[in-house]
Amino acid sequence: MINSAGYLSAPVSARALDLRWRTAAHAARLCWAEARPSVQLVFLLRFAVGTVSAGQLPPALGPAGLGLASWWCAVACAYLLNGVTDVREDRANGSRRPIARGDLPVHTAMAVTVLLGVAALVLGALAGNGVLGWVAGFLLLGWAYSCAPVRAKDSSVACAVVVFGLGATSYAAGVAAAGSGWTATGAVFGGVMAAWMALVGSLVKDLGDVGGDAAGGRRTVAVVRGVAAARALAVAGAVLVGAAGTAAAALWAPPALVGAVAVAAGAVWVVAQVVRDARRQSADRRQRRGAYRAFMVTQYAANLLVLGVLVATG
Questions:
Q1: Do the beta carbons of residue 112 and residue 27 sit within 8 Å?
Q2: What is the Rg, in whole angstroms, of the alpha carbon atoms belonging to the chain?
Q3: Which of 142, 154, 39, 36 minimizes the C-alpha distance to 97?
Q4: DSSP summary character for residue 152
Q5: Is residue 27 a contact partner of residue 104, using CB atoms and an 8 Å limit?
Q6: 3-state class of 207 per DSSP?
Q7: pTM confidence score
Q8: What is the mean pLDDT of each run of 10 residues along the chain (314 residues)?
Q9: How many CA atoms lie within 13 A of 198 on its CB side?
Q10: Residue 8 main-chain phi, psi, to 5 deg
């Protein structure tokens, strides 16, 4: 091997290559953890529900598989970017994610973010059926959530709007990947779950992070109006989505009813968690995030139940 000076140099040893591989693999694992695996999975579930809700399984699994891979890259890109832009708040809140604890350099995470974004667009184009457009829209929303000048995460209203879009595009991309059109089941259930994200998730996620959010300059309801106001809005949102979603499914999309009922049950759980947390004189961050965990479990349950019904009846 000839180096830049024109002299022969020793080839890279197998040990050096193994070390580089281990370093790259370690960085990839840290990026995966920073991008929140539980969130990545639920976004893939949304995509899958959208695909199956189109009325039949896609005629070719290739495009649907490419679409799913594209969606994972887009989700990981958006949430890794969020981790890059949330360092100050995460450290103030005592987060143990890799960037906040200093294990994952910001420049490494940013480089992987760019690679994931490019991969998402390339795979979306290969999937066809309009998936690329939804991928581009999702990436744009992910940027708007985390980055200036929009930084939707700084405002509860803007956050709710963007989060609704992130949920809705996930179901829409799944429908597009199937090569078919919307059904009443897909539209109603996708709308209910996007509203669950916007009116409940976007509020309860802030209940345990008020101190760090204030330190980061955010102007959420919990920061500006106080935790009590944020709790009241979260309770109202949970009750509204739980009741309206069940009614909408019963009227227009019976196959989605099992998921809507799960959301209604989850709404009761979220309300109970919010009330219990309000009664505590003091609580650590994990306890204050009880309502958010109830929100997340409800998402998983509702999507899995509807996916199972659609597969079984398809």
A1: yes
A2: 21
A3: 36
A4: G
A5: yes
A6: coil
A7: 0.91
A8: 46 71 90 96 97 74 89 98 90 86 95 98 95 98 95 93 98 92 96 98 86 78 89 96 98 97 98 88 62 96 97 86
A9: 20
A10: -70, 135
DSSP state of 254: G
Determine whether domain 37-313 maps to CATH 1.10.600: yes
Residues 154, 157, 160, 165, CA torsion sign:
negative
Task: Report which DSSP code applies to 199.
Answer: I
Single-letter amino acid, residue 164: F
Closest Cα to residue 308, out of 241, 262, 240? 262
Q: Partners of 2 in the beta sheet?
A: 8
What's the CA gap between 121 and 104, in Å, rounded?
25
Peptide bond into 11 cis (omega under 30): no
Residue with tokens 């219990």: 276
Alpha-carbon distance 104 to 99, whole Å? Answer: 5
Q: Which helix (H) or strand (E) holds 156?
A: helix 156-177
What pLDDT was estimated at residue 59? 59
Give how far Cα 153 sits from Cα of 33, 87, 219, 234, Å. 20, 14, 9, 16
CA distance 81 to 66: 22
Strand partners, 8: 2
**Helix, strand, coil percentages for the chain (3-state, nearest 5):** 75, 0, 20
Q: What is d(CA 169, CA 54) in angstroms, rounded to the nearest whole number?
A: 14
Helices and strands (H and E) in the chain: how many: 15, 0
Contact 68, 43 (CB under 8 A): no
> How many angstroms separate the CA atoms of 47 and 177, rounded?
9
CA distance 204 to 238: 10
